[in-house]
Write a structure and sequence with these properties.
This protein is mostly helical and 690 residues long. The protein is built from 30 helices and four strands. α2 crosses α3 and α24 runs antiparallel to α25. The protein is globular and about 80 Å long.
Length: 690
């Protein structure tokens, strides 16, 4: 870290001395000299690396020890070069024995977009996009069916498009069952399925099988109770898949485009929503069985997903956690441009997860005194894989640790704020009930024996289709900005727009029904709301939640985050119809506008940037990407310090820059986080020139 004052230099020097002189005698208390409280109280905001504490002559020994331990001896020279690159990234091009091909790969490592990535990575991400399409299609296949299935399955108490009385509760329960099942059971299955069926791919495959069965079964139901059972089954598959798919994308993606690749989840959920609305329109005129075809239509992308999932490589990080380093390296070679990049990433992830294991409460077995004496060097003392003989934390221990460990508490806070904010913004009230929503906007009291027999009821379906199209198209701006400006930036820009457009749409319902401008005005503000949503709080929550947890707790942490999201969706699906009957659409949208204001405040103070845009310069120059493992240091900064930074630094800067238009104001506020570098570790060895 570029020291800003004498105190910071002294602190760095102290750590350097500790890392090189005391580590062999105090191995139980430190790993490579990393401060003991780095993930609890990272007050300096230092994004660190244990390799920076090694002297150049120690790097070779460490790399040799690493390849011998994990049976990678055939690649020893490659890993030695990778270790030297990681030790001093600024001098990577001067590492001895680098070939021209390796230099070219390193040079273009952080500048290549998705379509210039290896074919295997492209195929894997496209497969995960299909998984997202399945998710969105299932959400809206039932949306169009809501216009017709209540009457077909015996819910006869209808007022316009809405069931009333006891039938309204039956209608709500059937719609809510999928999301309650997904949140209460489905998402919690993801970690056991990963552990006991060996891998992310197996969990996605099993969830796709469940979804396929529910789609076919739902189309064949004869009573609302049978439809309810298939919706519960659908929720099991959706909940598990929603937890695993973004995590797999985050773990295989290169750091500099991780945000956009993980964001494909929401982009293609939006595309699936559009496909679902399109399918609703295509089959809407086939007669009384139209709703059955609408429910069954999601089987198409599910079959495609099942055909592709085992073409994809397993997550290298998952394989490393299971001790399969050789297989992890082979998969990384498939997913990266060149073996040197694969070796560099494998070695770096290993080092950071060793630090992570030490400081995040993962069960380890420390060496005895005799074992300590038998060691041949400080290096093996520092990096010995103490967890090799330890039992990994079980499911309940990991669940406890995401709340008990301070670093995880900050991560879960950020994830939950985003996930709950996505539900409380009002979007799913539109996605679940847009057909009846626009039906009510057009004619609040119209009755018809068979709604779909009246061609005028195609208008709600077309408007719903427009909602789906807007949701998909306006996700593309986020695709551009999510890695360049950051996740948090997108949220803070778009949430205020959502509050304004939600309020405007609610007030538009006060226009008299007889006024022909009523439906167009409501539709305009609804589309504007969707544009803001799709560019911000739509794609960000799942992207951020898949990143923020350490490897050992990533699946359980993501499960909890998805639980809060889908449980919120289930509660909305259950109570929105009842609440609408009491306060009307104007009151409902007004409440959502107020909740968006609350979400903005929570995001401002509690959500941290994971793209690296908030990290100052250093050894990595202009690189703004942060690896998954480096996020441990971001969330090591205490919550109070992060909140005070927003209040004392970011807020005054924003006032000067955006409101007062002060030309003397810098383009960015002072950074809270800073990169560590090998040169800072040696500041005590190099005299300063005055």
């Amino acid at each position: 870290m570029a020291a800003s004052n004498h105190h910071e230099v002294d602190h760095v020097t102290h750590r350097r001395n500790r890392g090189t002189e005391d580590v062999s005698s105090n191995d139980a208390d430190s790993i490579g000299g990393v401060p003991d409280d780095i993930f609890d109280a990272n007050d300096q905001g230092l994004v660190d690396s244990p390799l920076l504490r090694l002297r150049p002559e120690e790097v070779d020994n460490f790399s040799k020890h690493f390849v011998r331990k994990y049976h990678l001896e055939n690649y020893e020279d490659l890993f030695i070069k990778a270790g030297k690159i990681l030790r001093d990234p600024e001098a990577s091009m001067s590492v001895p024995h680098l070939t021209d091909e390796e230099k070219d790969a390193l040079k273009h490592e952080t500048s290549s977009g998705f379509w210039k990535q290896p074919k295997q990575l492209q195929v894997t991400i496209i497969t995960l996009c299909v998984a997202a399409v399945v998710q969105g299609w299932n959400q809206t296949g039932t949306n169009g069916a809501n216009l017709n299935w209540p009457q077909q399955l015996g819910l006869s108490n209808l007022q316009g498009c809405d069931p009333t009385g006891i039938d309204a509760w039956k209608f709500s329960i059937v719609n809510a069952a999928t999301y309650l099942s997904a949140s209460l059971v489905g998402c919690w299955l993801s970690d056991p399925l990963n552990e006991y069926f060996f891998g992310r791919r197996a969990a996605i495959c099993l969830s796709a099988v469940i979804i396929l069965a529910s789609a076919i079964g739902g189309a064949c139901t004869r009573t609302w109770q049978e439809l309810l059972v298939t919706r519960i089954l659908l929720g099991l598959g959706m909940g598990c898949k929603a937890s695993v798919t973004p995590v797999l994308a985050a773990e295989i993606a290169p750091a500099h485009i991780r945000g956009s690749l993980v964001m494909n989840w929401q982009l293609f959920v939006a595309f699936g929503v559009l496909c679902g609305f399109t399918a609703n329109l295509v089959v809407s005129q086939v007669g009384p069985t139209a709703w059955r075809w609408q429910v069954a239509s999601s089987a198409l992308p599910t079959i495609v997903l099942l055909s592709l999932i085992y073409v994809c490589p397993e997550s290298p990080r998952f394989l490393m956690r299971r001790g399969h380093y050789r297989m992890a390296y082979q998969n990384l070679v498939l997913l990266r441009f060149h073996p040197i990049l694969a070796a560099k990433e494998l070695l770096y992830v290993h080092c950071q997860t060793e630090v992570e294991s030490r400081f995040l409460g993962v069960s380890t077995k420390f060496p005895t005194h005799d074992e300590e004496k038998s060691r041949t060097s400080k290096l093996s003392s520092t990096f010995r894989r103490r967890s090799a003989t330890a039992r990994p934390a079980n499911y309940w221990q990991k669940l406890y640790q995401i709340f008990a460990i301070k670093r995880n508490q900050r991560a879960i806070t950020a994830a939950v704020v985003c996930m709950v904010g996505q539900q409380l913004c009002g979007i799913n009230a539109l996605q679940f009930f847009s057909s009846t929503f626009f039906c009510d906007a057009r004619e609040g009291t119209m009755k018809d024996e068979d709604l779909l027999a009246n061609s005028s009821y195609l208008q709600p379906l077309f408007l719903s289709w427009g909602i789906g199209l807007a949701n998909f198209l306006f996700t593309f701006p986020a695709y551009y900005f999510i890695d360049r400006k950051g996740r948090r930036w997108l949220l803070l820009i778009t949430i205020p727009l959502m509050a304004l457009t939600s309020l405007a749409a609610g007030l538009s319902f006060l226009i008299p029904v007889a006024n022909g401008a009523r439906t167009p005005v409501i539709a305009i503000f609804t589309f504007l709301f969707m544009a803001a949503y799709s560019s911000g709080i739509g794609p960000v929550p799942f992207t951020l939640s898949a990143e923020v947890f350490p490897m050992e707790h990533r699946m359980v942490g993501m499960s909890f985050a998805v639980f809060t999201n889908l449980f919120g969706a289930g509660v909305l699906a259950l109570f929105v119809p009842q609440l609408t009957n009491v306060i009307g659409h104007s009151g409902l949208l007004g409440i959502f506008a107020g909740l968006n204001v609350v979400a903005f405040i929570l995001v401002f103070f509690f959500v941290r940037e994971t793209a690296g845009a908030a990290v100052g310069g250093g050894a990595f120059g202009n690189m703004i990407s942060v690896s998954l493992e480096e996020l441990n240091y971001i969330f090591g900064v205490p919550a109070a310090k992060h909140a005070m930074y927003q209040w004392d630094t970011v807020l005054p800067w924003a006032w000067r820059y955006y409101v007062l238009r002060d030309k003397a104001c810098p383009d960015q506020p002072q950074k809270l986080y800073n990169w560590a570098s090998a040169h800072d570790r040696e500041v005590h060895e190099v005299p300063r020139l005055v």
